[in-house]
């Protein structure tokens, strides 16, 4: 599959990149590591007239550690750099695990955190070559009016499979987002929408420039179930973070990925643990309750019944994993 014609521009400053991306009509696309965008272009899912290479911009490569262990990560940091960084591994192990689970080492060597958070939603029917897709009328994602996953659907159910997003959501991350007209900060929790066609609130011409991860004293976990370890997108993932001891839990965040069109928070199971503590009984009840928070689950990539069972098992495994972890020093007192 050949690339469509396009003009490639490699700006030397963030300001110039944002000016180029402000081109009207979405004619310009940002290329970071290119591990997804180049495939999307070959498949004619994305046909930008101008490709703006942002991968080497120094403004997006910065990485700062605050004294308390909080991070400011430039969106252009590669996944390999982050997964191997000692502070990420020691202070934010669930994030390191989530990042390490993305694709293969070759992919992670060029893929960036900004590209991962902005990974388009995926679907078995659309993520194919243009010739393959021509065999049937276009779906919502390719400017048609059909969903091949749910024939009667009025919306797109493509899946969000960005592995870093689940972990970052449980850690309370925030984004800096910039455009030619200024910049804004946004909690990551307000970035995603459960909408296969418009899965983020990023506006035209905007770029994620940095990800802020606050310091924390939580016990955390990340688990990914994939057909092949070290290459595949997840069939299901979970990230969890628990503040407090096993008996006195003060806050729980649970987010599952690769199940619906956004990294889906599970407030119901989280509440059960906050009220009952990390006991065997509460963990079992939380796992059972998970399906109630998922909304509509499709047969995309695996059956909806299997997905619901995976989520139940992942909630149980993540919470049991955290229950076995040592408390951070101050909580142990
Ligand atoms: C074999 C293979 C396996 C993979 N497995 C996984 C997996 O297991 N899990 C997973 O999550 N992903 C997986 N991916 C997808 C992809 O490699 C990663 O999501 C990667 O992190 C994308 O980053 P990138 O820098 O290459 O993004 P790019 O391809 O450069 O860009 C992806 C999208 O994000 C936009 N974008 C890039 N940077 C920014 C920014 N700073 N602000 C706003 N928009 C931006 C681009 O315009 C584009 O639309 C896989 C890909 C391949 C080829």
Question: Can you summarize this structure?
Answer:
The chain has 333 residues and is an alpha+beta fold. It has helices at 14-21, 37-42, 79-84, 86-91, 93-100, 105-110, 113-117, 130-134, 163-170, 267-276, 280-289, 304-324, 329-332, and strands at residues 7-9, 28-31, 50-53, 63-65, 71-74, 174-179, 182-187, 207-213, 219-225, 236-244, 249-257, 264-265.
Question: Overview of this structure, please?
Answer:
This protein has 13 helices and twelve strands. It has 333 residues and is α+β, with helices and mostly antiparallel strands. The chain folds into three domains: 1-58, Uridine Diphospho-n-acetylenolpyruvylglucosamine Reductase, domain 2 (2-Layer Sandwich); 59-118 and 159-213, Uridine Diphospho-n-acetylenolpyruvylglucosamine Reductase, domain 3; 219-326, CO dehydrogenase flavoprotein, C-terminal domain (Enolase-like, domain 1). β11 (249-257) and β12 form a beta hairpin. α5 runs antiparallel to α9, α10 packs antiparallel against α11 (280-289) and α11 runs antiparallel to α12 (304-324). It is globular, with a radius of gyration of 20 Å. The relative contact order is 0.12. Flavin-adenine dinucleotide (FAD) binds at residues 29-37, 75, 79, 102-103, 107, 111-112, 114-116, 118-120, 161-163, 207-208, 231, 233.
């Amino acid at each position: 599959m050949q690339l469509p014609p396009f003009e490639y521009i490699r700006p030397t400053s963030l300001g110039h990149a944002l000016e180029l991306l402000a081109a009207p009509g979405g004619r310009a696309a940002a290329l970071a590591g290119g591990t997804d965008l180049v495939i999307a272009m070959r498949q004619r899912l994305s046909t930008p007239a101008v490709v703006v290479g942002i991968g080497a911009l120094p403004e997006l490569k910065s990485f700062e550690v605050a004294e308390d262990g909080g991070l400011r990560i430039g969106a252009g940091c590669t996944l390999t750099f982050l997964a191997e960084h000692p502070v990420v591994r020691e202070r934010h192990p669930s994030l390191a695990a989530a990042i390490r689970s993305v694709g293969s080492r070759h992919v992670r060597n060029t893929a960036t955190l900004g590209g991962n958070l902005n990974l388009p939603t995926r679907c078995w029917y659309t993520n194919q070559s243009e010739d393959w897709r021509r065999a049937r009328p276009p779906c919502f994602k390719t400017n048609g009016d059909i969903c091949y996953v749910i024939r009667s659907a009025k919306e797109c159910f493509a899946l969000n499979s960005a592995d870093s997003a689940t972990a970052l959501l449980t850690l309370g991350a925030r984004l800096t987002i910039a455009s030619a007209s200024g910049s804004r900060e946004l909690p990551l929790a307000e970035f995603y929408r459960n909408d296969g066609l418009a899965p983020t609130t990023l506006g035209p011409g905007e770029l994620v420039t940095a990800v802020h991860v606050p310091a924390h004293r939580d016990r955390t976990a990340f688990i990914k179930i994939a057909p092949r370890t070290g290459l595949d997108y997840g069939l299901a993932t979970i990230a969890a973070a628990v503040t407090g001891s096993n008996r006195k839990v003060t806050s729980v965040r649970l987010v599952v990925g690769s199940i619906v069109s956004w990294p889906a928070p599970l407030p119901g199971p989280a509440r059960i643990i906050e009220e009952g503590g990390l006991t065997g009984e509460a963990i079992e009840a939380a796992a059972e309750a998970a399906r109630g928070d998922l909304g509509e689950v499709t047969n995309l990539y695996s059956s909806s019944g299997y997905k619901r069972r995976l989520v139940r098992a992942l909630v149980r495994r993540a919470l049991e994993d955290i229950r076995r972890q040592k408390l951070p020093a101050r909580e142990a007192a």
